[in-house]
Specification:
287 residues, alpha/beta, 434 Repressor (Amino-terminal Domain), Endonuclease, Chain A, seven-stranded mixed beta sheet
């Protein structure tokens, strides 16, 4: 799967071939366009993303107008693939939650893999409060915590609407990561146990003891023709068939390591007992 850097490099290589086919060296094309030569080299090396106007000027100078539409499409795909969190969240967390809700409403089957955090659709209000507060603080985005929190809770209504199915896959680490106070995490695990009994929800948990088929480097959400991947700095929106196929394959491999149903609920209950014993031990032994 190409990452954004590789996608920029691929676009730059394509523009470089147009330049060469037109008989220009980098300095000559820069002169023709009225640009600094360094701009040509940075675009061709994938160190700078050209604008649509840049692409139009480039193809026009290279007499390659027949390729303009295809290259613009490639550029837009690159821009879609790398949406910085600052841009995603510039209108606050509520706006972002509404965007996600629209995608979920149009999807009848959603696959979710999360190795570190409870998926948003399954979060309790208090757990979500801590997660969203972290995001606001780290990314320095508008503080609309209460509105964003309510929007996330509203999203969860889709779990109970006919025609929608969900397959969640989490690791045992999700149940133990203290991203919130222990009592909040315990309430969250209770919520997961309850949700796992819904007829339209499959909830798998990958135990620590399971042999993993692939390193769980990040989470992802799979819709019909879209996969979203969250990193610290950005959200990737993957739409190419080969990308979607790859993530489907990875989900299937991870699924084989998970436990479901009674086994999953038994694992979650053990984690609850561990948390209670560690953080809320009895005050004293009976005399």
């Amino acid at each position: 799967m190409p990452n954004p850097r590789q996608a920029r490099e691929a676009l730059g290589a394509r523009l470089r071939e147009l330049r060469k086919d037109a008989g220009y060296n980098g300095k000559q094309l820069a002169q023709e366009l009225g640009w600094q030569p360094t701009k040509i080299s940075r675009i061709e090396l994938g160190k700078q993303t050209p604008t649509e106007d840049d692409v139009r000027a480039w193809t026009r100078a290279c007499a390659a107008d027949d390729q303009l539409a295809s290259i613009i499409s490639q550029l837009r795909g690159l821009e879609l693939a790398y949406a910085a969190w600052q841009r995603q969240l510039r209108s606050g967390t509520q706006h972002r939650q509404r965007q996600i809700a629209e995608i979920e409403a149009e999807t009848d089957l959603i696959h979710v893999f999360e190795p570190a955090t409870v998926p948003g659709l399954l979060q309790t209000r208090e757990y979500a409060r801590h997660i969203m507060a972290m995001s606001i603080a780290v990314h320095n985005t508008p503080d609309d915590l209460e509105d964003g929190l309510q929007a996330r809770m509203d999203r969860q209504e889709i779990l109970y609407k006919p025609g929608h199915r969900f397959h969640f896959l989490i690791t045992e680490a999700v149940l133990r990561n203290l991203l919130c106070p222990p009592e909040v995490l315990m309430g969250q695990i209770d919520r997961l146990i309850a949700v796992s009994t819904l007829p339209n929800v499959a909830l798998g948990v990958i135990p620590f003891a399971a042999r993993l088929p692939k390193s769980p480097v990040h989470g992802f959400w799979m819709y019909r023709r879209l996969v979203t991947v969250e990193t610290f700095a950005a959200e990737l929106s993957l739409t190419q068939p080969e990308e979607i196929e790859l993530y489907g394959k990875i989900f299937g491999l991870m699924q084989e390591a998970a436990v479901y149903g009674r086994q999953a609920r038994a694992l979650m209950t053990r984690v609850l007992e561990d948390l209670a014993a560690e953080h809320f031990p009895s005050d004293a032994e009976p005399s």
